[in-house]
Design goal:
301 residues, alpha/beta, 36% helix, six-stranded mixed beta sheet, globular, single chain
Length: 301
């Protein structure tokens, strides 16, 4: 039996649907999905099986105009993910078409090594009429020689199976890279921290968009099969601490409950989650925070 395996990089603007597509392909919630742009910091990989092929998805940060060190490191990570992958898929939102951001990505694609396979996936197709879709497809294919084009709705699942089958056939012949039962290669501690950060982002997105990070400080397996997880939420200012805690601690309590429920569902067992908040003014400038997020601090220069 010939097996195939390889890396698939999904690139696109923030909110193009990369995380939703990863989750749809993998069939489990691995990558963090929120309506807040820039939530995928680390290159979380989800693993999907299609026939005799193992597809490892590299969920790159969204490509956008970088302003700060964190932004620059994220954009560098996205492009290096695309350059290293066996196949790259560019996601474009049907209703937004060729935005300034998509223009920049099309230019960036020209820089990829020769012979790189890049497919085009037009996402959120349920939002536009057929003639507009066809015009967009034609225009994008005139701008870059895509290996193939797919019309999909990552959220509803339309067209996703065709894309997955195509990707499976395009991967190089190779033994599988991961044990069959493994869906994400990110350590559980980090996935749990991401789940808590997602809940914070959803709750506080107006007040504290990027000024917080979550780390799992301690993970203890208990005799009864449950796990005790201690996490620290880092904010950059004293005033932010009060926002995260909320009046009478209600915000952090709600976040903790929501995060615990999701971590329990993911692990399939009981979890005791304890959250604390600490002010750390310069976490956005600390090299070790970056490596914990799977980014290279130097890429931010």
């Amino acid at each position: 039996m010939t097996t195939r395996a390889g890396f698939v990089a999904l690139i696109g603007e923030p909110n193009a649907g990369k995380s939703t597509l990863t989750n749809r392909m993998v069939g489990a919630k691995v990558s963090i999905v929120t309506h807040k742009v820039q939530t995928t910091r680390a290159r979380i990989r989800g693993v999907a099986i299609e026939g005799d092929s193992q597809l490892v998805f590299v969920d790159t940060p969204g490509l956008f105009k970088p302003r700060r060190r964190l932004d620059r490191a994220m954009v560098a990570a996205a492009w290096s993910g695309a350059a290293d992958a066996d196949v790259t898929v560019l996601l474009v939102e049907a209703h937004r078409g060729i935005t300034e951001g998509v223009e920049a990505i099309l230019e960036g694609l020209q820089e990829l090594p020769k012979g790189k396979k890049v497919a085009l996936a037009i996402n959120k197709i349920d939002r536009v009429e057929a003639p507009r879709l066809l015009a967009l497809t034609r225009e994008l294919n005139e701008r870059y020689a895509f290996a193939d084009t797919f019309m999909i709705s990552a959220e509803k699942g339309h067209g996703v199976e065709d894309l997955r089958k195509w990707l499976a056939a395009e991967l190089p012949e190779s033994p599988w890279l991961y044990p069959e039962d493994q869906i994400a290669d990110l350590p559980m501690r980090m996935i749990a921290a991401e789940m808590t950060r997602e809940k914070l982002t959803l709750r506080l997105h107006q007040e504290l968009p990027y000024q917080l990070t979550v780390e799992t400080e301690n993970w203890e397996e208990r005799k009864d099969g449950s796990a005790r997880i201690d996490q620290m939420i880092y904010v950059t200012r004293d005033g932010h601490k009060g926002i995260v805690l909320g009046k009478g601690g209600e915000t952090i309590k709600a976040v903790s409950q929501a995060a615990r429920a999701e971590i329990e569902e993911f692990l399939g067992r009981k979890v005791h989650l304890f959250l604390q908040v600490k002010v750390r003014e310069n976490w956005l400038e600390e090299a070790e925070r970056y490596s914990e997020m799977g980014l290279d601090f130097k890429d931010g220069n």
